Q: What sequence folds into this?
């Protein structure tokens, strides 16, 4: 059961990387230093004070940058691949007692996939905000994304299985909304 919980925590934290890349590693570092999270041996460095400081500085800069007009759009283009890498690393850092091939395959598919799915939705949301309000609502979107990253990270540590189920349900709901909207647009175009 430990492996399943580790994977669920990893997926939850990886999904949070889709909102903000550096918040989940910062929270992981805090949780590891406080004894609430066990990292795999090769990622024990994430639970050190230098890593905590580095993650705190990176998270602070990332948070501040998303409140700068037009810089937030540029960051989305950089954050998309970075979120996938971060999601993969976050999941891999929590999986112990597994062959390296299986561990990294699972981390890439589950962790990187969860981060990519959430990041895609945030890019779409920010794009809609940019088109709909000329970017005036982007600080509200940035605040919601920050809150989503913190909340998802905390819930992934506290109730990991529930968090993964909620993430899957939300992604399914958002995906079905996007697909139905595209289908409506196709019908309008063809008529």
A:
């Amino acid at each position: 059961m430990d492996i399943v919980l580790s994977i669920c925590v990893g997926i939850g934290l990886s999904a949070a990387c889709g909102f903000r890349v550096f918040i989940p590693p910062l929270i992981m570092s805090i949780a590891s230093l406080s004894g609430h999270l066990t990292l795999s041996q090769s990622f024990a460095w994430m639970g050190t004070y230098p890593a905590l400081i580095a993650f705190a500085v990176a998270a602070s800069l990332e948070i501040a940058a998303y409140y700068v007009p037009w810089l937030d759009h540029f960051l989305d283009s950089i954050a998309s691949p970075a979120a996938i890498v971060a999601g993969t690393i976050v999941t891999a850092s929590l999986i112990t007692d597994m062959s390296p091939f299986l561990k990294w395959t699972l981390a890439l598919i589950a962790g990187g996939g969860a981060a990519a799915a959430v990041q895609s939705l945030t890019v779409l949301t920010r794009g809609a905000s940019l088109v709909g309000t000329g970017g005036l609502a982007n600080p509200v979107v940035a605040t919601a994304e920050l809150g989503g990253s913190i909340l998802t990270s905390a819930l992934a540590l506290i109730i990991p299985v529930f968090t993964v189920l909620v993430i899957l349900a939300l992604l399914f709901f958002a995906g079905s909304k996007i697909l139905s909207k595209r289908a409506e647009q196709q019908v309008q175009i063809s008529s």
